[in-house]
Write a structure and sequence with these properties.
The complex is a heterodimer of chains A (about 500) and B (about 425). Chain A is mostly helical and about 500 residues long. Chain A has helices at about 15-25, 30-40, 40-50, 75-85, 90-120, 125-140, 145, 150-160, 165-175, 180-185, 195-205, 215-225, 260-265, 270-285, 295-310, 315-325, 340-350, 360-370, 390-405, 435-445, 455-465, 475-485, and strands at about 230, 235, 245-250, 250-255. Chain A has a two-stranded antiparallel ribbon. Chain A has a two-stranded antiparallel ribbon with strand order 3-4. Chain B has one domain (about 40-410): Alkaline Phosphatase, subunit A, CATH 3.40.720. The longest helix of chain B is centred in the last third of the chain and has 25 residues, at about 300-320. Classes of the chains: A mainly alpha (about 500), B alpha/beta (about 425). Chains A and B meet through helix 5, helix 19, helix 21 and helix 22 of A and strand 7, helix 8 and helix 9 of B.
Chain lengths: ~500, ~425
């Protein structure tokens, strides 16, 4: 039986296909890079985008491990004395000292959000950041209940480190991750007084999907995770709070701990299928998050990806290697039909239009209005995909953030031409400025895709070729702004 | 459970008419059933055009200094210096000793005219004292939401249901603010949200005229054909956005006939009144007033905020009356929790639990609903709730808007008796 995962023949892997690959794994297109990749043939091209790059020169994270450092015994004592004292001044001082730590921590997460966004824009290894973002949405953890920015960054680093390694490693890691433990209250999960939150989400959202286990499995799984806590910034196993009795999880019986529990989950067929579906939704198509809803080629491909995952012991790289080289990935049903996430839109615009350095805080604010705040997913279920990103309000937020990135103009503010600080002519140094129609078509192919119908190109081409004069900086800026306002620009 | 209602002519007439029609003939529940429209169509016709405005008081409004139990000695004993002196409290019901903060005189006026309702002791089981978690509970419409929700709220779910029934408009829900509140997010249904109506449009059009006209050209050619195609979906949303933007901006550009206070809430409610005047198909408007987290030196801040609330709401209904629209608008003001009974050491109050919910409009059942929570029978120093907030949501969705409260709340709640409909 011919598999939908059979590789696309090299004869059909041209610059358009290489562009599609970059859009889906590296945030956005780049026609020079696409041309180079297309000459390598599909396997080598995919290998190249998955290979990684030296990221050592990127900006350092703005973190301080000590903001949430637990009080020493003396400090604790002094604090308690002050807060319970008769002297209102002393009580006030103690309260204010505590509030100062809270403020510092909130500031740290507000610095980390633009830090990560900038990293996505600058990194020579966008594939890694795009995968890290995927895992952030999968093992969704929000700053709000965690309220410890350093732990959020630690998790981010771990997800980045393992992002293309193995799902098994990630799943094993996550039950040891202090931010996750705090987010899902596992530090309150004790022998005889279980808290089921982590056990439940581990099954429902991280490994198996809804309905693939019973309530009793959650109860027993929670017992296996008792004592998995953290101390200061690190995981800690509290043996006295661990329930070492016998448990029955998904038909297996033993004195399981958290590692055993994760091991049992990874052995389930449902787990590979669930992760295959999540990968498919991130890289390939906006389909339902319920396996039962899948039909046609999407269902077949997810089944096949699940098999690849299992035979590779959940290794991500070989799985993506197969998926991203597949005939299906380059089919008409896939290309140009996925709605960009806010991160994809913003980072993709920055990278492919080489927009200048502007306020990262503002650009991240734009993403927040579009519905995607880094380190603050809406819930443990993470972000949705596809149509959930687009409505009448977010569409303007998406268009207007692009306007800001290109021109420096904020909505409702007067535009200062001097503030543009951007030379779009850099994008066309390899093209003939005297041929505006030709340039328009090349840029449309790159930014909106070669599949854009001729009649949709006309207003854009006419704009750039007004009077058929050589292209000026202003014209080109207006043209690019219009490109980002095309409904088609929301898709990739 | 209703305390004495303020005696107004309108109340009296309505009350006696209702009484006459049912007296001694049919049992009450049957009379209610026969009076209620019993087909979906009749119900739709009745509730069409009705609008709900929600005012979120963010930060945890001090309920005890909003609706003041001046008749309870314990209030003065426990609140100490922060207590409102009995002589300054604006009486609502002197029989039970309940009144309003002195800054709420405009609300007292509305109350006496039969246009305001005070529901006392509103909350939910196992209260959470974190702003974030408690606001999630109110937004999700689910008392367990503090442990993790799904980013979807009660209003969003109600409109998801409407969407499934083919009865929705892109302007069904409008929120004013940077981000649409979770309450208004559905799985599919999404609100329109903006900080200022003039910003609800493409900002690139100001670059120069040619860009603006090219932008129009790019959108004129759109012709969404199918439902399944993602490109068509974005086309349709783009067209909806342009239509909604035009309608909203045109509506809000209108001058109001009466004056509004020039503050945050006043400006938001003025915009809402203009959209109501333009008869947008909006069922729910959502606005917010923040700053209620009064841990220190509360008195002045709280006074200013309540003044802003009262004068803005009063102005809002004056305007609605002037344009003949007040009958179709009910407004609800809520906060994520009240504050502790005892003040703290900084002339402020810390996070508490139950608090009052205020409703406004000619169609509310004016009066005090519920009795004031006890100040001595406390739960860890906090008030025990008496009215589940979802029973108010149920009344507003089901009885006022004709939306599916059960779908929105995931279970059935008996509607609180807050409306005269």
């Amino acid at each position: 039986m011919p598999s939908l995962l059979s590789p696309i023949p090299d004869a059909r892997f041209g610059p358009a296909q290489a562009r599609h690959l970059l859009c889906r794994v590296a945030f956005g297109p780049d026609r020079v890079r696409a041309a180079r990749l297309s000459e390598l043939g599909v396997h080598q091209a995919v290998e190249t985008v998955l290979a990684g790059a030296d990221t050592s020169g990127l900006p350092e994270p703005p973190v301080d491990p000590d903001v949430r450092r637990p009080f020493t015994r003396e400090e604790q004592q002094a604090y308690r004395q002050a807060i319970n004292s008769e002297d209102p001044e002393l009580r006030k001082k103690a309260r204010e000292a505590r509030q100062a730590f809270d403020r510092k921590d909130r500031q740290m997460i507000r610095d980390l959000q633009p830090w990560w966004l900038e990293r996505m824009m600058l990194t020579p290894d966008p594939t890694q950041e795009f995968a890290t973002l995927f895992w952030h949405g999968h093992f969704a953890t929000g700053y709000q209940p965690v309220r410890d920015a350093y732990l959020m960054w630690r998790q981010n680093e771990a997800l980045r480190r393992y992002s293309l390694d193995s799902f098994a490693t990630l799943a094993r890691y996550i039950v040891h991750d202090p931010a996750m433990i705090k987010y899902l209250n596992n530090h309150q999960n004790r022998r005889g007084k279980p808290n089921e939150n982590l056990a439940r989400e581990l099954m429902e959202l991280f490994t198996l999907g809804e309905g693939m286990y019973r309530e009793s499995d959650i109860k027993e799984g929670a017992r296996a995770l008792t004592g998995y806590t953290f101390s200061d910034n690190d995981f800690s196993f509290n043996e006295r709070q661990h329930d070492d009795g016998s448990k029955t999880i998904l038909g297996k019986r033993g004195k399981f701990d958290g590692e055993d529990f994760v091991g049992i989950l990874l052995k389930q067929r449902a787990c590979a299928r669930y992760i295959a579906l999540k990968l498919y939704r991130h890289y390939v198509a906006d389909v339902s998050d319920r396996y039962e809803d899948l039909e046609g080629s999407a269902k077949l491909v997810v089944d096949q990806v699940a098999r690849v995952l299992r035979s590779n012991k959940y290794a991500i790289r070989p799985t993506l290697r197969t998926l991203l080289a597949s005939d299906h990935f380059y089919s008409d049903a896939v290309v140009g039909r996925k709605i960009k996430s806010p991160a994809q839109l913003v980072v993709g615009t920055a990278r492919s239009m080489r927009t200048p350095k502007r306020s990262m805080v503002r650009q991240h604010e734009g993403m927040r209005v579009m519905g995607q705040t880094l380190f603050e997913p809406p819930s443990v279920a993470g972000w949705g995909v596809g149509r959930s990103w687009i409505n009448t309000s977010t569409l303007y937020a998406r268009q207007n953030t692009c306007v800001y990135m290109l021109t420096g103009k904020s909505p409702g503010r007067k535009w200062n031409k001097k503030g543009v600080n951007y030379d779009p002519m850099r994008l066309i140094t390899d093209l003939d400025k005297g041929d505006p129609r030709g340039v328009a078509n090349v840029l449309i192919d790159e930014q909106l895709g070669p599949g854009l119908p001729a009649e949709r190109r006309v207003p854009l081409i006419d704009f750039l070729a007004e009077g058929d004069k050589a292209i000026t900086r202003d014209r080109l800026l207006g043209f690019l702004t219009l490109v980002t306002a095309m409904p088609e620009y929301q898709l990739c | 459970m209703t305390e004495k209602l303020p005696f107004t002519r309108r109340e009296f007439l309505q009350g006696s008419l209702a009484l006459m029609s049912t007296l001694g003939t049919v049992p009450g529940f049957l009379a209610h059933a026969s009076a209620a429209p019993n087909t979906a169509a009749a119900r739709g016709a009745l509730t069409a055009g009705r609008t709900l405005v929600i005012i979120q008081l963010s930060g945890g409004n001090d309920g005890l200094n909003t609706v003041v139990p001046a008749g309870m000695d314990d209030y003065y004993r426990q609140r100490g210096g922060l207590a409102i002196p009995a002589g300054e409290v604006l009486t609502l019901d002197d029989r039970v000793g309940i009144g309003l903060h002195p800054a709420l005189r405009p609300i007292q006026e509305m109350y006496l005219e039969g246009q305001a309702t005070v529901v006392q002791g509103v909350g939910y089981p196992n209260p959470n004292r974190s702003h974030f978690a408690s606001m999630d509970v109110w937004h999700a419409g689910d008392s367990r939401a503090a442990d993790g929700h799904r980013g979807v709220g009660w209003i969003g779910r109600a409109f998801d249901q409407e969407l499934r029934r083919g009865r929705s408009d892109s302007l069904s829900c409008v929120t004013i603010g940077e981000e649409a509140p979770m309450a208004t997010q559905g799985r599919e249904a999404k609100p329109v949200s903006f900080t200022r109506a003039d910003l609800f449009s493409w900002s690139g059009k100001d670059l120069h005229d040619q860009v603006a006209s090219a932008y129009d050209g790019l959108h004129e050619g759109l012709a969404p054909a199918s439902n399944d195609d993602p490109v068509d979906f974005v086309f349709r949303t783009a067209l909806d956005a342009r239509a909604a933007s035009t309608r909203v901006r045109r509506a809000v550009a209108r001058d109001s006939q009466t004056d509004f206070p020039n503050n945050g809430l006043g400006r938001q409610l003025r915009a809402v009144s203009s959209m109501i005047a333009a008869e947008l198909p909006t069922r729910i408007y959502y606005v917010a007033l923040g700053g209620f987290d009064t841990h220190a030196n509360q008195a002045g801040t709280h006074n200013r905020l309540l003044d802003q609330l009262a004068t803005s709401v009063r102005a809002f209904y004056r305007e609605l009356e002037a344009i003949g629209q007040s009958e179709r608008v009910v407004t609800m003001a809520f906060s994520e929790f009240g504050r502790r009974v005892k003040g703290n050491g900084s002339n402020g109050t810390d996070h508490g639990t139950a608090g009052p919910v205020l409703l406004f409009g000619p169609k509310v059942r004016a009066g005090l609903i519920g009795s004031h929570p006890s100040l001595t029978d406390l739960d860890n120093g906090d008030l025990k709730f008496r009215v589940d907030f979802r029973s108010i949501y149920s009344a507003l969705l089901d009885d006022w808007l004709g939306l599916d409260a059960r779908a929105a709340l995931g279970q059935r709640f008996r509607s609180a008796p807050v409306l005269e409909v």
